[in-house]
Design goal:
Chitinase A, domain 3, five-stranded antiparallel beta sheet, alpha+beta, 661 residues
Length: 661
């Protein structure tokens, strides 16, 4: 008993030892060459990128994985060879990498730090709609300070307990909303000025935003009266009874009697759509059973809108009165708020139109502090003085006097005034050939400041952003491989004319003309004209002369309608011409694809034959070059294998994609 127990204990301990010494799946070595190892995680990442993702890769066969492993080991040996060749010290390649990092890094940074958070915030906001009221003050340049003081005093009085609605009546200059206590109805992100929107979304329902809000319309006091989940769209049908009678006179009494009778029929269970067809006086929807299709909030008049968006799907409203008449509304569907992925492109468009510039400016402001940006006011003033009545371009008459002066500094670097001009002009059409003023020069400085600060951030991005680091690593590997292919393959290709000709002789069966036909055409879009031309031909008119005068294909008129030698297979006109038997024979008018009519004349037929060397020269040269590329590529890989002696562990490939690493 004791011995058996000891055996079990020893086996258990050996199992633990074996298990603890087994590498994690991600650390399994699939191949090695020299001091370099290819581990499972690296292989899986590379394979996933090339096959459409991890989940898809899991479904691939072992043979596919083995083939890719061979290719990947070759790739890794090439990268090692690139380092041995000193590519990582090659000034030209390193400059290309820095330039790519700067350009792509700015785009990446903007997308990740401005656009992505912006559209996510917009998506979250648009899940809700707010009902808001406001008190608006319209200052002018002459009374801006006094109006601001008044607005602040009104806001303070509301904070102290005075009625918001009473203050609306006394002070608001928005005549549209005053009768409704300042109510501007339901809003969602993207519908009102950004400043108003930001204030409203920060304010709980029933409360007033604690600060004045300035928009292009003036100053606002903002109150949120309701916050609710947003229904993006409803589909509704309606029955409208117009206030006007058959004589176009207003008769609300008769209209009300009629709509009441229709409502009674609905309550008795009669079909809403049929009733709309019988009684509705909306010509646009009547024949469609009253259907108005889908519409968003604020697309209909307020009373209609409010009723429709308060109904559940399938529910019928009470009688609603609007300026158009009396309505009965039935909601037939309500769209749910879409997923982020479904809405992403729409959000991007909305964000870039309305929010991007403010977000960009805020980002540049933060980088201004981060990189210790400082304007050289002395240089700025000097450029301004030397630019009186001068246009903004690279031919500034006094450029020599200031081009080497520092206009601003950042991150321990200086930007010269001459570079400011060139970079501002490269940035777009905001400056070119405009007279230089203080405002324009300030705008140019701000523009270039934003560009160089973002570039600086991009240059530092690789050290702190793994995703960008991986992107840069892929690009670096790409240019190293391209350079290797250039050095080891493309620059060694020798297209010797004798070898190309011999290759043609060895493979000429590959270069074959299919059956071809030479034909001419007279084309017209008009049926009667083409038959007139046919009659002329039958009466003896020369085909070429007539084609040169009347054919309606502009690109063939000078050629007298001649298509030249054309492959028959798959060409409808050529197939039609091939039905002709004798040289010079022409067809009756034939209706052609795309409209119009053609008369076709057979010039001659040429059956399938081998191409001569001259005819096939371009194809032969390309094929020979492809063959040489493959030969030189294979020879290069074989040299690497002899140099690095790779060992590949195919027996471990079945463990790929078997667990999440």
């Amino acid at each position: 008993m004791y011995i058996n127990g000891l055996k079990i204990l020893l086996l258990f301990l050996i199992g633990i030892l074996f298990f603890s010494c087994s590498p994690k799946n991600s650390d399994i070595v699939l191949a090695e060459f020299g001091d370099n190892k290819v581990k499972m995680k690296e292989f899986e990442d590379a394979y996933s990128k090339n096959s459409g993702g991890y989940e898809k890769a899991k479904e691939d066969s072992i043979s596919k994985l083995k083939n890719f492993l061979d290719l990947y080991v070759n790739f890794r040996m090439k990268l090692r060879n690139a380092i041995v060749k000193g590519y990582d010290q090659n000034p030209e390649l390193q400059l290309e990498l820095i330039d790519y990092k700067r350009r792509i890094g700015v785009t990446y940074f903007i997308e990740k730090n401005i656009v992505d958070p912006g559209i996510k915030d917009l998506y979250d906001k648009r899940k809700y709609e707010l009902r808001a009221s406001h008190i608006m003050f319209r200052p002018t340049l002459q009374n801006e300070d006094s109006i601001r003081s008044l607005a602040q005093a009104v806001l303070d009085s509301i904070k102290q307990g005075n009625s918001f609605e009473d203050m609306v009546k006394r002070y608001s200059t928005d005549s549209y909303s005053v009768p409704y206590g300042g109510d501007v109805y339901y809003i969602t992100a993207g519908q009102v000025p950004v400043e108003f929107e930001n204030a409203a979304y920060k304010t709980p329902a029933g409360q007033v935003y604690p600060e004045l809000v300035k928009t292009r319309f003036g100053l606002h006091l903002v109150k949120v009266t309701e916050k609710r989940e947003r229904v993006p769209m409803v589909r509704a049908s309606h029955i409208l009874v117009d206030f006007r009678n058959d004589s176009s006179q207003i008769d609300t009494v008769q209209a009300k009697i009629k709509i009441d009778s229709v409502m009674q029929k609905i309550k008795m269970g009669e079909d809403f759509g049929k009733l709309a067809q019988l009684y509705s006086e909306d010509p646009g929807s009547k024949q469609k059973g009253g259907d108005l299709d889908y519409f968003e909030r604020r697309r209909m008049v307020k009373e209609f809108d409010e009723a429709a968006f308060s109904l559940d799907s399938g529910e019928v409203s009470s009688i609603i009165k609007t300026n158009f008449g009396y309505h009965i509304i039935k909601v037939t569907d309500k769209k749910k708020y879409p997923s982020f992925e479904e809405e992403k492109e729409n959000l991007k468009t909305l964000f870039k139109d309305r929010y991007y510039q403010d977000s960009y400016d805020a980002c540049v402001d933060s980088l201004t502090k981060k990189y210790s940006y400082a304007l050289n006011q002395q240089t700025f003033d000097k450029v301004l003085v030397l630019s009186d009545s001068v246009k903004f371009n690279n031919e500034h008459p006094k450029l020599i006097e200031f081009k080497d002066d520092v206009i601003f500094s950042y991150a321990g670097k200086n930007l010269l005034a001459g570079e400011l001009f060139s970079r501002a002009l490269e940035s777009g059409n905001d400056f070119i050939n405009k007279f230089i003023t203080k405002d324009l020069l300030t705008k140019a400085v701000d523009k270039v400041k934003g560009i160089v600060l973002l570039e600086e951030e991009a240059l530092n991005l690789q050290a702190k952003d793994p995703q960008f680091s991986s992107l840069m690593n892929d690009y670096k590997n790409g240019i190293y491989i391209f350079k290797l292919q250039e050095d080891e393959v493309w620059n060694k290709i020798n297209i010797d004319s004798a070898k190309v000709y011999q290759y043609y002789l060895d493979t000429k069966d590959k270069y074959v003309w299919p059956d071809r036909i030479s034909f001419s055409e007279i084309y017209s879009k008009n049926d009667s004209l083409i038959h007139h031309y046919y009659d002329l031909l039958n009466a003896g008119t020369d085909f070429d002369s007539l084609a040169a005068q009347v054919t309606e294909r502009p690109n063939l008129k000078q050629k007298k309608g001649d298509y030249g030698l054309t492959e028959i297979n798959g060409n409808k006109l050529a197939e039609e011409a091939d039905k002709l038997k004798e040289k010079g024979e022409f067809s009756a008018p034939v209706k052609v694809q795309g409209g119009g009519w053609s008369i076709l004349r057979l010039n001659y037929k040429e059956p399938s034959r081998l191409k001569t060397f001259e005819e096939a020269r371009a194809e032969v040269s390309n094929s020979f070059q492809d063959l040489e590329v493959k030969r030189l590529e294979q020879a290069y890989v074989e040299r690497l294998k002899k140099l690095y002696e790779p060992v590949i562990y195919y027996d471990k490939i079945d463990k790929a994609f078997t667990e999440t690493n």
